[in-house]
Every structure is written in structure tokens, then in C-alpha cells.
């Protein structure tokens, strides 16, 4: 793997012919935790969606290299199997598709991709039991359909379970803390931290410092109008918390 | 002989049906243009009516009682005949329908075959149709009767491995007596060089229920026609179907559901999954008469187009003559849910597999309506093929 | 259901059922080539227009009256109709208009003279077969907007008329449109030049007055690139025992980035509760969204006519073009309506919306009939259709016949239909709050139609609400 995890150069992305990212550069090395902050509409979600090949995002310029591979050559499922995991801000409900079956299919898809032996039902069940217990997730969730009728908290826990089962290398967290209470945020942070072994990396989008206290970022970036305008360490997040974006001379985007 | 030229045929077995057929006439060009569903071509091909029924043993499934129908004739030797079931071949009883295609099958049939179910069976009943021959027009009739208060589970399947270039014309009368329940599932996966037109005539007495479900995967052209008159109180009819076709296959459901008596219910739902250049038709009309107060009727068509070639024509229709009722219909056409597809892919499931999972979820909505476990499992296996 | 209350509430007198006594110049009944030539001559038409009429007439003779709609009526005797009627004095200025006609328009609520001052709406009024007065001409002229009777357009703007007439509804389109092509008498012609926003609402009022007369108006609206116009039409007719035929054709064309909003309030005489009299309203309305990003929006409130056969449609040919159809159709007494919309998606990224509200009362028969068609090359077409029926009483009929033909996988087409009734509970609840029965019924009906009334131009929304109330109102008890 070497020293590289993710290298983004001069990235331009449009959604429905409107340019959102306008020349973004970002390097993430193995083991690093990066936090992406900025006002609404700055393009934070667009960046993680683009990294996960969301159909809305059209890359018009620039490069994204992940583990030495050109991400543009890989579709959403291939990127996932290469180890990129995006935790959705609002996970999609899929009626009629059983959660357990879905998770097993996803895990075995990754194993097949990596040329590993697929897991049988019993092994899988054992793994899932262990993980649900470890993170205090109600196993009844697995009997239901994917995200169907889940509360906001249940959806985020389901995302967490997928993450700890699939064990990704690059974790993208899109406002995973929004709408959650303190205890739930702690559970999520515990899950993310349990995966951090010095090799895995995190790119998280958040508005709140509460999550940043629990998952300490090595780097903090401020995104404005489709570009990173300032980078720093954890102290930058603290400054934003104290002074707000306006205090740092950053205004809310006007349409 | 050509079925469309039935008038030139000399050996008509059922003159009454011929009169009706002449009265109503085959679907006109105009009707077919409006449906985008042409069967005139099928009916004007040259077929032979010279087929024989050579009864032979059939490998049965222990989970079912099996009734074998060989080229349209019940094989009484090889079929199971458990206590509570009887077969009859009787003189014809007149059936009143406006579907001329029903009579087109009847004119060639002298007798009427009937299965009577007198008490509840410990296993579901499986009707296996075996077909043998080439270039045949194969008319067949079966009346299934559930006697008063009896609950009957029926699965109907078709084996056309020994049939070529033929048109199968099936008539089924689903006769449900007072407080009886007739659950009927049809699974059709015949070869594309064969075609099938089925006319269903459900007859429901007071307090009875008839639940039909159908899966159409095969045939060059397959058409199910329903003519339902709910003229007894508290009777319930429902249909749940899947049409899953590809290449240049055509399949459709045409249904007329008339509520002539109060407190009756009807529901007609079909999922269409269309690939390559397949085309499907959903033409359903519910009519609620002024007398049929407190009735409920519901229709829904859902279509997934997997390619740019397929075509769907959905015509859900309501004709309501009173205000004391519940009626609704809906129709959607499009591709698979983009967000759901993306979500599955973002977890490492490749696009093809993700599509398959979503299609299966749609199919399950239909299969889950099948009450009987054996039949449901059978249907699931059938869809996996 | 408190049947009596509802029945009383919905049976009403036709408020616009007066007849105006004017000297009129009316052709004898009957239709043949000479009649058509005479119409053409009366209007001093160019030869090509007469040829067009005669071609249509020849075609019409070979056509059959369509019977697929859900309408029952006695056979129309096309030889028992007069195909032209005009007030005898040809008006040149407002002062010359027969005072009785002016009075008629005042009764209709459109005092021509006051239009200018009060509401800033330009009005073209068609009385029987001829256009009697178009207001606001000068102000429109300044902007290069043409708003005139179609017969005048034949004289003054022949090149535009020749280019666009029958370009959306061809002369052989259907039985009634073909008849109209042969005998059309008057109607409005509108041309909005490039990048022009029409500064006022344009409006036409149609009135059938003479006995045994058919009205065959023809309207053509062209919105050139980047232009916008909002156009309204209203209709009424006197109370008569005999049915009268109205077979109109409306063609709309929008070029690139242009938009037409077309609103109709149709209040022809509906006939009596036994189905005697009333207007037979067979109308072909069609829009061609020819240019990219163009948009046509049809809004109709249909409370009149004994028969309505009408399907305002959009052919979405330009990429990103948008078609909308908002409709309220009310059938009471013995009225029958078969109405809806066709949205034909041909261009890419085209969008359409259909919202239809049908109200049936007494022995009214109300059918929604619509088609949403997505062609093979119409990538990313979107349609949402919703058809709601409100049934009032146990003797009326509500039918829904939506057709969906989809031939492109990127389409997203959705249709929903619901039915509801005015329940005893609703009536009781509203009455408990001190509101009288008839007001309670109109309250519920107005709520049911809210989405449509909201898209009407304001003055028209007020009129539409009043009309719905009148059509459902009567003496309680």
C-alpha cells in the first residue's frame, strides 16, 4: 500500500450541470483521520458521494487516485470492494430485501472480489452475532428489510454494523452524527475507533465538535465554494467552534 | 384449419358456442390496435386439430396430489384420486361471457371436464398439463368446483417439452360455492415457439373467496383473460400476477370485473418485468353498479423496463355508478429504483446482482400472497429457473 | 347520504341562460360545398383557405363520428344546423356594436368598455360565428403582439396563418376537427414575437346566441422564441330545448424557451335534468411544444355543456419541454363529460403533469380519459398523473380510463386515481359549525378542487369558484 491511500488533484464535479466542486485537492495517508467542515452548500457531501461514484456526480476535470488506482475506472461496487465505505447521511430504504441477506451478499461479494473464500451461513451468523453484541445493536434489525421503517438512530446503527462487518480501509462518514443523541454518537464513534488500527483512514463530514472529540482528527479542512480554503490540525476545529465560520471570515454561501 | 376461420370448419362440436362466437366476433383490428396486442396473427396461422391423448405415467411430487391432463384430456388412470375429489365429464353447461376467445376454444369441445372438491385435502392439488405434438390448436376446458365451505389449494403447471409451434387455448371455470375458498396459482414457463391464451371465468357464490395468482415467464405470446361478475354478497376475488418476459415475447392480462351486488371486493395487481424487446399489456376494468354499494375494487400495475426495447401498455379503468364504495387504481412504469440500486452497489454488490436482488423483491410481493407454503415454495423455485 | 339536501343543493338554474334579441344574418340550415364557399366569401378569404376548407369537407364526408367515448346522445343531424350566424350590423367600432350585444356581454360579466380600465385584460368576444370586438389592440400592437379574430388574420397576416394553421391539428385529424376545418367561422389568432412577455392576460369570450346554430371557432396561438402569454377563454349560451353543436379547434405552438398558459372556463348551457337541450361540446385542443425548454399549461374548469368531448394535449417534441394539464370537470343534472389529456413525450428530458378532478352529481356521467405516451427516444421522460373523482349521491357515474404506453426504460411514469364522496359525517360536521347545507357542499367541492383553482389567473379563480357553487346550488328545503 505504501504511503498512499487517497490522492485527489484539481477535482471538478458537477451535479445536473451545476459545478459544485471547483478544483479540490486532498491527500489522505494510511492511518490518518481527516475532518471536512464548512457551511451548507460548500460541497462536502458532493465530495464523499463522488468518491463513492454516486450517479448524480459528474467528474468534469481532475483525478482521484486510491491505493494507486484511478477511481474513475471503478464503479460503485468495485470501489466498495476495494475498501471504500460511505456511511449515508440518509440511508435508502429498500422494501422487500432482507437485511441479513443483504449484508451476507455484500460481505461475500467483497470476499469474491478479493479472491477469498466465501462465508457460509453459519459462519456469517456467528460473525454478525459477535458484532451486534459488541456494539449493542438489536439483532432483530437484521430480520427486517434494508432500512425499511427504521428510525433515524436505527438507520445509523445499521450503517455502523455494515461498516464493522465489511471492515473498509477508507471510511467516509457523511454527517453520521446528525439527529442522534449523545449515547448513539458514542456507539458510532466506538465502532469507528475499533477499526482504526493505524492503517485505515477516515474522512468525516460534521458540523459538530462532539463527534470530533470522540474521533480525534489529525487534519481539519474547511471547504468553501468547492475548494479547500484552509487546512490545519484539531485546533482549527476548536477555533471554528469558538468563533464560528464568520469569525474566520467565511460567510454562508448565497445562492 | 385456421382458428380465425372457424366458420369454415365442418366438425364443430358445440353449436351453441358457435352461435355466441358469431355473435360477439373475434377481437377487431381496432380493439387490437388500441391494446397494442395483436393475436389475430396467431389465430390466422394454420393449425391441426388432430391430436391424441396418449396417457403415460408421470413422476409425481409427494407434496401434492397430482392431476394429469394430457393434451387437454384428464388422465384418470395416472392421476391421484384422493377421498374428497371426483372427476366428471358431463354435457356442457352454458357459460355466459363476452370473451369470444372462450368460445373459440369451446366450439371444438363436445364435453365438459370438471373436478369437484368436496372436502378439504391434506395436500394441495397440482394440475399438470402435458402437451405433445406439432402445429396444433389445442383447446381444453376444466371446471374446478369448490363445494360449500371447502378450502381448496390448486397449482397448475404446464409441460410442453414435446410440443412445437402450437397454440394452447385453455378455459378454466373457477366455481366457488358459498363460503368456499379457491386459491389457484398458475405457473407458465412454456417454450417461445408455443403460445397460450387462457380464459378464466371465476364464479363466486355468497361469502366465497377466489384468490388467483399467476406467473408468466414463457410462451411467444401468452394472454390471460378474466371475466368476473360478482353478483353474490360478500364475495371476494383477487389476482396477483407476474409477467417476466424477454426477447420478443408478449404477455398480457385483460380483465373485466363487474360488481353487481353489494359488499363485494375485487383486486387486480400485476408486476411486469420486461427485457430486450418484450411487450406487455395490462387492461383491467372494474365496474361498480348502482346496486353494489359498499363494494371495494383495487387495481395496480407496476412495470420495470430493463432495456430500451420493451414496451408496456397499461390501461387500468374504473367505471363507478355509485358513491358508496372504495375504488382506487395506480400504474407506474420505469426502471429500477436508482437510489436503491446505488445503495446496494455502494456496499460492494455488483450492478447485475443488485438488479437481481431488487427484481426479486418485487416478485416476492406477489409470491408472498400465495397462502399455501408448498405452492409458494414451488413458485419461488419456478422463478429461480 | 342526505339525498334530498344534496339533490336540492346541486340542482340549479343556469344563470347565463338569457337570449339576446339581435337582428342576425343566419345561413339556412345544411352543409354542402356551397355553404363552405359562402362562409369563405363572407369572410373574404384567400383562395388557399377556401381550398383548405374544401379539402377538409371532402375528407369529412368519408369519416365516421367517433363512438369510443363514454357518451350517449341522439345522432346529430349535421344538415339540421346552420353553419353561420352573424349579428346583422357589422361592427367597426365599439359604438357601432349592437347595444343588445354589449348588454349580453355585460350580463356575462365582461363589459368590454370597462375591461381596459378595470382589469387590464384584452378581450376578443365571439358572438355566434363572428368576432365582434377586440379590445386593447393598440397597446398590443406597440409590442408587435397580434391578437385578432382569425378571419382578420387571414387578411392581415396570411403568411403566419398559412404556416401554422393545421400544423398541430391536421385537417384530417378527427371527425370533429375535420368538420371544424371545413366550416370554422371565427376565433382568436395570437402571435407573440420573440422575447416578448405579453403584458396582459388575453381573453376570448364565446357566446352562442342564435337558434339552431353551430359554433365552430378556431384558435391559433403562436409563442415565438422566449415569449410568454397567458390566454383565457370563457363560454356561455342561452337556455334552449334543442341541443346545439360546438366543435372547436385550438392549436398552440411554442418555440424555444416559450411558454403558453391557456385557461378555460366552460359554462355552455348544460341542458336540463332530463338531458334536454344543452351544448354538445366536441373540442380538439392540442399544443405542440416544438422548441427546447418550452412549456404549455392547460387549465380548465368545465361546468357546462350537456356533452363534453375534450382532451387538451401536449406533444412534447422539444428537449426539456414541459406539459401540464389541470382540470376540474363537473357533471350534474344529466350532463356527460369525457375529458382528459394526452401527453406525448418525444423529446429528451420532457416532463408532464396531469391533475384531474372529476365531480359527478345527480345523473351526471364524468369520465377521465388520458394517454401518457413515452416514445423510444424520449430519454428521461417524467410524468405524474392524478385523477380524483368526487361522487355526490348514488345515481351518478365516475369513470377513469388512463392509458400508459411506455417504450423507454429511463422513463418514470406514475398514475394514481382515487375516489371519494361527500359523507354524511363531513356534512354534519360542517353544519354543526353553523354553515348551511349548500354552502357546506361548495366548501367541500372547493377544497377538492383547490389544486386546480390555485393555478388559474386570479380573476378567473373567483369566477370558477362562483361557477362551481352555482352549478351545485339550489333552493334548500
How are the elements arranged and paired?
The complex is a heterotrimer of chains A (255), B (385) and C (477).
Chain A: E1 6-15, E2 18-28, E3 33-37, H1 44-51, E4 57-66, E5 69-70, H2 76-81, E6 84-87, H3 99-113, H4 121-134, H5 152-166, E7 170-174, H6 182-195, E8 201-205, H7 209-214, E9 219-224, E10 227-232, H8 234-247
Chain B: H1 15-24, H2 29-35, H3 40-43, E1 65-70, E2 73-74, E3 85-90, H4 100-106, E4 112-117, E5 125-134, E6 137-146, E7 151-164, E8 167-176, E9 181-188, E10 195-204, E11 209-216, E12 221-230, E13 236-245, E14 250-259, E15 265-274, E16 279-288, E17 295-305, E18 311-320, E19 325-334, H5 338-345, H6 351-367, H7 373-384
Parallel strand pairs in B: 1-5, 4-6, 5-7, 6-8, 7-9, 8-10, 9-11, 10-12, 11-13, 12-14, 13-15, 14-16, 15-17, 16-18, 17-19
Antiparallel strand pairs in B: 1-2, 3-4
Helix pairs in contact in B: 1-4, 5-6
Chain C: H1 3-10, E1 24-26, H2 33-42, H3 47-61, E2 85-87, H4 99-107, H5 112-118, E3 121-127, E4 130-134, H6 137-142, E5 146-149, H7 150-156, H8 158-164, H9 175-183, E6 188-192, E7 201-207, E8 218-223, E9 228-236, E10 243-246, E11 249-254, E12 259-266, E13 278-289, E14 295-302, E15 307-310, E16 313-316, E17 322-331, E18 336-339, E19 342-345, E20 351-361, E21 365-374, E22 382-392, E23 397-406, E24 412-421, H10 424-432, H11 437-448, H12 450-453, H13 458-472
Parallel strand pairs in C: 3-7, 6-8, 7-9, 8-11, 9-12, 10-13, 11-13, 12-14, 13-15, 13-16, 14-17, 15-18, 16-19, 17-20, 18-21, 19-21, 20-22, 21-23, 22-24
Antiparallel strand pairs in C: 1-2, 3-4, 5-6
